């Protein structure tokens, strides 16, 4: 007795051998693995510095701590790299979910466009904020500034 199993209805059929050009799905799969490993290092480094190596631990983290940390280029780039990888990793995961479960082409295009737009917007705004953050702006009312700004 033989049983015939019908081919499932995938949104995107398997890549044929005659197809030319880059295999973007394979690149996305490799990116997810590589970015996941790098994110683990970045996140645990971030947590270790903030919670273990900083005297006072979690109780020392306040506006002044964040302002001082973001004044150093090393931590700016660390946080920006963590932000970029986290957003790209998450949006690639969402893209995969949409491709797997959304079968109507127009809805899929709309969802993928929304994911891409949100990722670009978050990366741009997060990068801008990280590199332009100034806890002690010159033109601000001194009564509104944190106490450590008066000593500058």
From TrEMBL:
Keyword Membrane: yes
CDD domains: SQR_TypeA_SdhD_like (cd03500)
Pfam families referenced in this protein's UniProt entry, alphabetically: Sdh_cyt (PF01127)
One of the record's GO cellular component terms: membrane
Keyword Magnesium: no
UniProt keywords, alphabetically: Heme, Iron, Membrane, Metal-binding, Transmembrane, Transmembrane helix
Gene3D superfamilies according to UniProt: Fumarate reductase/succinate dehydrogenase, transmembrane subunit (1.20.1300.10)
Gene Ontology molecular function: any one: metal ion binding
Record InterPro entries: SQR/QFR_C/D, SuccDH_FuR_B_TM-su
Compartments where found: Membrane
Transmembrane segments: 27-49, 75-98, 110-133
Protein name: Succinate dehydrogenase subunit D
Organism: Agrococcus jenensis
